[in-house]
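User: I'm curious whether this sequence folds into something compact or stays loose and floppy. Could you predict its structure so I can see for myself?
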Amino acid sequence: MSGSSITITGMGIICALGDKPREILDGLLTGNQDGMRESTGLVRDRTTFVGQVTVPLPDVPERLSDYRCRNNRFIVAAYNQISDDIELAKSRYGSDRVGIVIGTSTSGIAEGEKAVTHRLHCDTLPQGYNYKQQEMGTAAEFLAYLAGLSGIAYTVSTACASSSKVFASAKRLIEAGIIDACVVGGSDSLCGLTLNGFDALESVSENICNPFSQNRDGISIGEGAALFLLQKGAGEILLLGTGESSDAYHMSAPHPDGKGAETAIRGALADAGLRPEDIGYVNLHGTGTRKNDLMESKAINRIFGQSVPCSSTKSLVGHTLGAAGAIEIGFCWLTLFSWNRQQLLPLHRWDGIRDKELSPITLIGERTRLERSIVMSNSFAFGGSNASVIIGSKA
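Assistant: Here's the prediction. I'll summarize afterward.
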C-alpha cells in the first residue's frame, strides 16, 4: 500500500438497510433486501421496487426551516453520527479550515413536486415552501450552517457520480493546503421526476434490480445519505486514490466498451500508486441495465481479469443516484472497519443466471473473505462522468 496523508476519520450513513452502521454491515453480508419495497405512486401507471428509507428521520432545526426537506433530513441523520468528529476538527483547525463538498442529483425536488401540485389546485404555493429546499447547490450550504463551518463549501451534481467525485475534490483541496479537513458525502431522496425520467428511458425494472444477470431489465431507484470526515494524517482507514474521467460518449448511454470507466479506474490506481492485483474488492456500479453492466464487465475484465471479487449492492438498497458513490464507499468503509471481524465481503444478490455476452468477472457468493485490505468503489454517470475511489486499512 502506498503512503497516504488523508484519513477517513468518521462515517455516518442512512439507506434502505437502516441508519445503524452495524446493522447495515449485517445486511450487506447477508444480502438483506427488506428495504426494497414495492411502490405504486412514484412511476406513472405501474408499480416498481424502490430502496426506501423507513426509519424515523430527525427534523431540520427550526433556525434552518427554509432548508427543510427529506433530502436535508437525510443529511442531518448522517451528520448526527459524526458530529463529534467534526467538532474535534473545528477545535483543532478552526471552522474556516474545515471544508464541505456534497454530491446530490435530486436535492429536495420531491418538495418542489408537492409545491407545484398544491399551486395547481389552490393557485398558491404551500405555507413553508422555499425554493432553497430543492435548489441543487444548497446541500453544502445547509450542512455548513448545521455544523457551524465557515470554510469553503460547495455541491457537486454530476448525476450518479456526484458523491464519488467529492472525494477527489476534497483530496485536492487538502493536498493544496486550502483546507485541513473536509466533510464529504452525498444525499438523494426518492421523487417522481427521477423515477419517471428513468422510466421514459425504459431503464426502470418492475422488480428488484438484477445486476449482471441474463435476466436483468433495469434499475431500482433508492434513497439515502452518507457523510465522512477527511483530514490530514494516518488513521485506521485511509483515502488512497481517486480517478475521474469524462468521456462524453452519450448523454444517457455509457461508452459500449467502457473506455471512460477504465480511464477512471486506472486513474485511481495510478493516484494511489497501486497495481490491479493490490485491490481486494470492487464495489461495482452495477445498475442492472443492459448497457451499463455490459460495459462495466468489459472494463473490469480488462483491468483485473477474474482475480478480484466484485459485487453490486444496488439490489439491496437501490440506485441512490447522486448519493450512490458516498453510500457505496460507506459500504466499503464498513467492510474494512474493525466491526467486520470475519473480514467478509458484501454479497452480490442476484438470480445467479450469467449472461454469456458479459465479460467474465468474479461475483461474490456466500462468505467470501477480504484477502487484501484495499478496496475500490466505482460510479459511472450520464454524460460519461465517471469516478473511482480507493480506500484501505492498515490491517
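Summary: The chain has a mean pLDDT of 95. Residues 70-93 form the longest helix (24 residues).
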